[in-house]
Amino acid sequence: MRIGITCHASAGGSGILATELGIALAERGHTVHFVTYESPFRLQGFHDNIFAHSVDIVSYPLFRNPPYSLALATKISEVALEHNIELWHAHYAIPHAVCAILARDMLPPEKRFKLVTTLHGTDITLVGSDPSFFRITKYGMESSDAVTAVSHWLSEETEREFALSKPVRTIYNFLNMDKFNASPAERCKLAEKDEKIVMHISNFRPVKRVTDVIRAFKKISDQVPARLIMVGDGPERMSAVGVAKQLGLTDRVKYLGNHEAIESLIPCADLIMQPSEHESFGLVPLEAMACEVPVIGTDSGGVREVVENGISGYLCEVGDTESMAARAIEILTDPNRAREMGRRGRERAVQCFSEAAIIGQYEALYDELVGSPAAVMP
Ligand code: GMT
């Protein structure tokens, strides 16, 4: 099938998932065209059947903010026409679903593609539910031929919040399990031999609660020789640095910034700590599970569908850094338990969230749509 994909190109979960999906589809013989503002973060190297198109943004003094969405819609339309795209897959409702709809409307009727919109979480929970975007987010979903969400929790939240006239289907996120595994890594550069490594990976946005990581780590490092490795970057980084300083932890915390090859870092960790307010899915916990690293997460949102509490890690109440630390110490001081949790996590990851388990669900959806009549607004 000839497929177009739009996603955020930066180091966020939705863009990563969209890129990995494009790669997996291309490996299965589909032709995939990415349209983004820059090359997607995880799209490295050459891939047969993948083509990347970047959006040309015109800056003109009259525009306070160059109208990126209009340029994106134009580019999608051009690419769809030139390459006879049968199906467009928009990742993240705003602005991608709406731009794809606009692009579809610009095409002659016989050239119009089918549109799948995949919701990733914050597009619904934070952006789309804001009054300034509510109606256009709803319009984007109603005018798509199918809407999917990355967890049952997100599907239910969307239905509750937007009362759509169509079902939101759940298709879980997936990973390439050959890429993410427990292969030994160079942990010596991150910590001393006798130190445990606690790791956090995110875009350091408020929803990630990075200062909870620091506070929990303080309690951990009071009892276990350990180092905290913070991977990623974003607006809360300075708060994390400030709290670590206040708690006298500056020497025990390393900030690595964004890292492209996260699969080589995660296996160095003894524990991954993700204390988010909510996660629609939790790609990082899944990556940790695939690498046989136990996870401390929060009992909130879709992460409950990924991490089994007490089996592949622990889910604590949001903000309860006391319990997070206690659970972490339990894992860090019992290597057999940690190994078993890692093993069970990998087992679950392979069984439920591997490419083999998920890609076929997208392909079946595409097949169902291509050839069926176009979506109409109710
Ligand atoms: O977590 C973020 O802020 C990034 C965001 C994104 O859209 O890039 O991640 C969301 O999508 C990921 C991929 O589906 C999910 O694994 C994350 O849980 C989700 N983030 C939130 O719901 C906060």
Keywords, separated by commas or semicolons:
Rossmann fold, binds ligand GMT, 378 residues, alpha/beta, 6-stranded parallel sheet
Folded structure, characterized:
- The structure is a single chain.
- 40% of the residues lie in helices and 16% in strands.
- The protein is an alpha/beta fold and 378 residues long.
- It has 2 domains: 2-174 and 355-370, Glycogen Phosphorylase B (Rossmann fold), CATH 3.40.50.2000; 196-353, 3-Layer(aba) Sandwich (Rossmann fold).
- The protein has a 7-stranded parallel β-sheet with strand order 3-2-1-4-5-6-7, sandwiched between helices.
- α3 packs across α5, α4 packs antiparallel against α5 and α10 (283-290) packs across α12.
- The two termini are 28 Å apart.
- Ligand GMT is lined by residues 12-15, 17, 92, 120-122, 150, 173, 203, 205, 207, 279-283.
- The site of ligand GMT has 19 residues, from α1.
